[in-house]
Specification:
The structure is a single chain. Helices cover 61% and strands 1% of the residues. It is an all-alpha fold. α17 (270-277) crosses α20 (312-331). A two-stranded antiparallel sheet has the order 1-2. It has three domains: 14-109, Annexin V, domain 1, CATH 1.10.220; 119-245, Flagellar motor switch protein FliG, alpha-alpha superhelical domain (Annexin V, domain 1); 250-331, Annexin V, domain 1, CATH 1.10.220. It has helices spanning 14-17, 20-30, 33-40, 45-57, 63-73, 87-99, 101-109, 128-135, 140-149, 152-161, 167-175, 182-196, 210-218, 222-235, 237-245, 258-265, 270-277, 282-289, 294-307, 312-331; strands spanning 179-180, 205-206.
Length: 346
């Protein structure tokens, strides 16, 4: 469980240290259980986990910080100053109402649920290692189908836990998937039925494809990405290029508009941004600095200078984290990433 935030009198403002998720968590704590549960119903499994963890982390926020969050969100609810921040039972009740007891328990304790209406859907509530262990002995096509159904970030984590010689084969099969007919879904559900003793309705499904493979690769670590792409290139240079063309890299941010970048930067932890900018070219640095306040840009420049030399792999991983956030926000329509595969500019 994350440590609760404890106000530090030496801090200029606790509000300034809060992430967007933590601010959302404070707002969630202001709602009743039923209303909060309704919100959780519209979130992905990973979002439920992140927001639930953030709700624990904000137990110690002071009233001024709560007011600041409310002011930023909506002035008309500024009067709601009575915040009960005892999170335990509240969060458990909210998650149970939103997604049911089994899934809520999985989120809170990482214990695999015992049942699900659809076997494939239960995977979204499992951790990456459990999924990898579940599918590691299956045929690569079954593995590819299952990975294709997962949230892209979770899929990348599962991919990383599979044997190295299997990883390129799985990505290759995902990239060449299109419409999956009922017989293929039937085989997939047969595998899942053996694992969870459940049934599901069969129907043709549109999963996989080059864009899905590219999105999964966006979440992988740099070394893993390079190794998989190199292996795929041996078999098909065109397929490798198609996947690469649909991926979004850090340098592509320079092509995005200032408003989108400002929105993105508000969702990035300062330490991650500082590390990522250590490896950015001067044009992109100035573009991003121009999307910040003069004070914020100056502080980041000072932190970059104080950081000293950093390993290239660490810088690349920080850039990957930012791109993962950017891709998610782009998928949600919060920002537009010019130059990203699938995003059209008009």
């Amino acid at each position: 469980m994350p440590d609760a935030i404890a106000p530090n009198p030496e801090d200029e403002s606790l509000f300034d240290t809060l992430s967007g998720t933590q601010k959302s968590a404070i707002l969630m704590m202001l709602l009743g259980e039923d209303e909060a549960a309704e919100i959780f119903k519209h979130l992905s499994p990973r979002e439920v986990q992140h927001l639930g963890a953030a709700m624990y982390s904000v137990q110690g926020v002071d009233q001024d910080t709560v007011n600041a969050v409310l002011d930023e969100f909506l002035n008309v609810i500024k009067q709601q100053t009575s915040l009960g921040l005892g999170a335990g039972n509240y969060i458990r009740n909210v998650l149970t109402k939103a997604v049911g007891g089994d899934k809520a328990q999985s989120v809170l304790s990482r214990i695999t649920p015992a049942s699900s209406e659809r076997p494939i859907e239960i995977l979204d509530w499992m951790d990456a290692r459990s999924i990898a262990e579940l599918i590691i002995d299956e045929h690569p096509q079954i593995v590819a189908l299952i990975v294709s159904y997962l949230d892209y970030g979770l899929a990348a984590d599962v991919l990383g836990l599979l044997p190295h010689d299997l990883q390129p084969e799985v990505v290759r099969r995902i990239a060449t998937l299109e419409t999956v007919q009922p017989d293929a879904v039937r085989e997939l559900e047969r595998v899942m039925q053996q694992k969870f003793q459940a049934n599901t309705t069969l129907r043709a499904s549109q999963i996989g494809g080059v864009k899905a493979a590219a999105k999964i690769m966006n979440f992988t670590k740099t070394a893993m990405e390079q190794r998989i792409m190199k292996d795929i290139k041996k078999d098909s240079k065109d397929l490798m290029q198609s996947i690469q063309d649909n991926m979004f890299v850090f340098d592509n941010l320079v092509m995005s508009d200032d408003r989108s970048l400002q929105t993105l930067l508000r969702s990035i932890d300062t330490e991650i941004l500082v590390l990522a900018l250590k490896g950015a070219d001067e044009v992109l640095r100035e573009k991003l600095f121009g999307c910040m306040s003069t004070r914020a840009a100056s502080n980041i420049k000072d932190e970059m200078e104080a950081l000293g030399p950093m390993r290239l792999t660490d810088v690349q991983e920080a850039q990957k984290q930012i791109i993962a956030v950017a891709r998610k926000m782009s998928d949600e329509g919060a920002i537009v990433l010019a130059g990203r595969g699938g995003d059209e500019m008009v």
